[in-house]
Amino acid sequence: MRTLVPFAAVDPKTRLGSVLTADERAAFARVMLRSVCATLQQAGYEPTVCSTAALDATTLPADTAVVVDDRPLTTAVNDELTTDTPTLIMMADLPLATPESIRRLTAATDAVGDAVDIAIAPGLGGGTNALVVREPAFRVDYHGASYLDHREIAADLDATVRTVDSRQLATDIDEPSDLVEVLIHGDGPVREWLLDAGFELDRSDGRVGIRRR
Predict the structure, then answer these.
(1) Residue 163: which domain range?
(2) The domain spanning residue 119 has which CATH number?
(3) Alpha-carbon dihedral 173, 60, 40, 122, rounded to 10 degrees
(4) How many other C-beta atoms can be found within 10 angstroms of the C-beta atom of residue 3?
(5) Cα separation, 126 vs 163, whole angstroms
(6) What's the whole-model pTM score?
(7) Which residue among 15, 19, 54, 203 sits deepest, i.e. has the most Cβ atoms within 10 Å of its Cβ?
């Protein structure tokens, strides 16, 4: 199974601008990318990063391939879906992902006698955080509520779909409030980066938030 990890290398994670500088956002995005690629390798997959710009080799685990493509996400990914090879597409900002959660997603399309054409791990806001494609005619559309769009695209192709409900794969990092999940549930390099940068949980207002020392 081919494994693709799209990555916005230039000015990433702009919605974290209220808590991180531009340089910090770039560094943080690369820590998350490295974590996702390492987790995929632990799950038995060989990720190829589809980056909008060239990456320093030290950004990635050893043996991680990189394809540079500065086109919009949907266009770049769809060009990689032009073969009959089953493909796993996983976003680069899923720091809670585990090998087990990835295997559970891919198993949905591997099960003998009960396999499906498309397996989707949705994000909490209606996006698509990870996707397994075994239908050669399927194409992605990452705009708006892409989870719903992908189900509709599959239905138009008479392709079978399974939604895989996973907190680890549903937690993507876009807003400052998302960092809370990493500090509470994370145990890897992304959480360590945040701690080293001075972030901590803020429990002073009833609902747990985040603050920076």
Answers:
(1) 2-212
(2) 3.90.550.10
(3) 20
(4) 23
(5) 12
(6) 0.95
(7) 19
